[in-house]
Design goal:
Blueprint: H1 2-18, H2 22-46, H3 53-104, H4 108-115, E1 120-126, E2 129-137, E3 143-151, E4 159-165, H5 175-181
Helix pairs in contact: 3-5
Length: 189
Amino acid sequence: MDERAIGMESPPEAAKAAEPSKMEKAWQSSEQTLKAQMVALIEIARTPGYPSLAEYARILKRTWRVWLIAAGAIFGLMAVIALVEDVTERWRNAREIRYEQAVASVTPDRLIARCGQPAEVVTKKVYPLVVWTMSYQSRGNKKVVLVFSRTAEDKSDWVFLAMKDQSGAPSYDTPEAKIAVLPCLDSKE
């Protein structure tokens, strides 16, 4: 009985193995198409002269999707690059504005609130002005001197005059340079 059961099941399996599957048919079809295209390309390459406009049009009709995808990818890449440049420029401008506002709003009280107590404070009264000099240790353990002044009146506002290094030369002219030396100037307090 086992032989009959094996014999009965064998013919359908043998028939399935003999007929090609859908995958194999598709592969053979695409292989034939590829061979035909290669023969056509070899034929075009063998003909002397340049291909005609009709041949170009025929090639473009067959490959229009590829060209459309390539053009879309190029335009998309250009848009992404422009967007990244715009975002970085806006970020840079916002940082510069924040630095300028931070440096412009420095007063002795805000400086103490942002950076802590100074290492040294010197007050000079030169009628009609009061000059206040504050020293801090900056990055790299350099001494940074900040100079403020105001009129001798009690209710006048402090004016930030200069930021100097320990030699006394005003070497920090831009807001970026001032904040690079004394980063606590840019705090949000």
